[in-house]
Amino acid sequence: MLRIAWRAATVAAVVIALTGTAEAYSRKDARYVTSSRNKAVLDYIVCLEKAVGAKPKDLPEALAKAEKLCADAAQELPRSPDQPDAENIRMQILECGFKPEDPSPDTGC
Q1: Is 99 in a helix, a strand, or coil?
Q2: Signal peptide position in this chain (predicted)?
Q3: What count of other Cβ atoms lies within 10 Å of the Cβ of residue 97?
């Protein structure tokens, strides 16, 4: 039984390695970061998540690099008081991460 479980886990790991991720991060996932439903806001968050990668050792540093790579998407962010700007998005990601499983339990996210 243990061998079957180990083989299944190995096959899953190989599939994930070959496809990049089990499921690509999407606009739907980006809704965790913001209450905004603006396409440009969600696309910017998706860009940041893809540029940061799975589990960065230093999230602030990885996010700073990602912001440079996503500068074009940042230019598309709406300039409206009811929509988050790049700094608001950055602060939310630093506090709560990109997904519900990212923050530590004591953050209140």
Answers
A1: coil
A2: 1-24
A3: 19
Predicted confidence (pLDDT) per residue in 22-57, tens digit: 579 999 999 999 999 999 999 999 999 999 987 788
User: Which residues fall within 8 angstroms of residue 68, CB to CB, at 6 or more apart?
Assistant: none
E strand segments, 49-105: none
Angle at 56 between CA 47 and CA 107, to 5 degrees: 90
Q: At what angle do helices 39-52 and 59-69 cross, to 10 degrees?
A: 120
Tokens of 96: 């709560």
Instruction: Please state, in angstroms and rounded to a whole number, the distance separating the CA atoms of residues 49 and 41.
Output: 13
Greatest Cα pair distance in the chain: 57
pTM over 0.70: yes
